[in-house]
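Explain this one:

_____
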Amino acid sequence: MARFRILLLGFGVVATLVFSNCSGSKISVTLSPSTTPTINQGGTQSITATVANDTTNAGVTWTLSGPGVLSNSSTTAVTYVAPSVLSADTSATVTATSVANTNVSATLMITIDAVFEIISTSLESGTLGVPYSGAITAGGASTPFTWAIVSGALPPGLTLSTSSGTSVSISGVPTVEGSFNFTIQVTNASGTPVTQSFTIVIAPPPSLSVATRSLANGTVGEAYSEILQAVNGTPPYSWKIISGKLPAGFSPLSSAGVISGTPTTVGTSDFSVQVTDSAKPSATATADLSLTIAPNAVNDSLLNGNYAFLVNGFDPNGHFMAAGSFVADGAGNLTNGVIDTNDPANLQLNQSFSGSYLIGLDNLGAMTFTSLGRTFALAMMADGNARIIEFDTTGAQAAGVLLKQDTSAFSATQIMGTFAFGFLGADPEGGRLGIAGEFTADGKGDLSAGQFDSDGSAGAAHAVAFSGGYSIPSVVPPNGRGTMSISVTGQGTTNYSFYVVSASELLAIEIDQVVGQSRRLVSGSILKQTGPFQASSLGASVFETTALETTAASATPQSQVGLLAAPTAGNLTISADQNSGGTLSSLSASGTYSVASNGRVTLTHSGIATPDPVLYLVGASEGFVIGSDPGVIFGFMEPQTPSPFTATALSGTYAGGSVVPTTAGATNQVDIATASGGATLSFNTEANGAGGLNPGLSSSGTYSLVSGRGVLTVDGSVAAIFYMVSPTEFWSLLTGADAAVELFQQ
């Protein structure tokens, strides 16, 4: 018969549970240390476990209750890592449970002392005449805090804010170059002061430079036009070629920097340009450029190498998504294909395929997975990536991306560091669901310190902790396919396949079987974070969001494209355009934000939605947007390159395509857009919607561009509103009832 005995040691700190079976053998777990240790915030404590009478030598599993995290876990040992910031003393409990008999466990309580200190150790450098923003943070005690500079001085033009909180900001416009040393003192509510020395270096303003570093290829017999760009000087600029020459058939380079003509000869022309600004005295800068002219034939060579792809949308069974990889040979053939697909009626994993593709002279093309009966239309970018949509008679209407793979990243050891992710799809009830979060990958197959926010028809969940694991099996030939699991205490485990684009980017799709179960179904991108994250991590960003506003009678697509700016640390402004089922409106708001060390950003009074969404940063001014609202806002933002963004900033050829549609039957499309560099924007389009396939569409309109916001007019009506991310990228909000959003890039 079974017998249980509980032994309490160290005032209730360690409990040893002994299991005895009828034969007399006993399993027991003991921990070292055996009494309560005390460590400081940010400190670590090593713990070892001994399992007596375990003939399997299976060891233990570890769990944590309270703040902090566990790391370096094995079946016999673990390391507890205390939080780096505390406002008061606290404690955590680590539990070791026998693998051989899960009824046997032992616990260790750890006391963590808060240490009043200034956590920040350095401040970023500034630039003369350029607005500066920095922040200093303290922790380990209760507010209010009192901040002061007790020695030295800030650079002229900068001031210390008034703050009683855990952070104080330094902001302003530097007026003097140099290195400035000062000491900050913060005093807590008990009157205890601590100090920290800092240095801010104010550098001279950047010099004039040529921003254009590469030129799009041209084609024999096709009109070509590009406008050279300069930065950090005083416009207007004057351009000239100082060595080499343009290809045959081109006009001389204009003083405004326009390269134009109709090429007549195949080949690559190398030349050097010089730009002169209007300052007194004037400044000059040079750059070496090359322009390649291709033959007037199909452009199949644009698709060449290993590729991963992801599409998300709908099919006749409900929400549909697919992810996979293949090898393109540059001559129209696809090999080594593997694809995963999922919808409410069917889960298909690791399907092999081969196929073919054709890229036209305008860089629009199609690829067919022959054995699967699936075809995708694609718009190729100059870097070999593409926007894609499903374009066949299967009934699937989905949009996504096709990205070149770095095959050197096809192993778990290459996937290491902190990552942010954004997933979109359907919740267990079939309604819209968005998820965004972050985690740490150890390069060995374990995911830790995970956290996500989600929003769906059942409501929003915030800062949900999770852990998990991942693997990338070695296969021949390699395809970059891996699997991943995410586990949430009390909620179970979800499983995914992913395809490696690089060590910094993965494309993921949920692979849990949906049929007969109430399970969610999502897919999206996983991107490596580039921290550290702080208030200054937000600047000027172009953002796009989609949502589905539902009532008892209808569901209305609602999308936004606009600009999020952070004029000072902790403060934000929003200026955006919104399309709600074909009704346009403008958004303008001022609010505040707070940035956590893991890149999670909370917004207040942002104006984007009610309640406010949350951001998970990938890097400075870049990240995923996840809502808390009934419409389930979801999107992405990228940093906007500083530029005057006059009409001439939009110049050359751009490839574009739809983001994930919000409703079944919404039109998805891929486009090649050609901008005149002045006023005209033309499109070649492949579209798929409720009315079926629409190949070979073309349109043209005029546009205006003021302060980075453009308006496209076709046949006298506004067809789209777009925002410039940089001279090589813009995001467009279409004005139709589908409220579609398209992303364009050279």
Summary: Residues 647-745 form a domain with the Lipocalin fold (CATH 2.40.128.20). DSSP finds no helices and 58 strands in the chain. The CA atoms of residues 127 and 203 lie 5 Å apart.
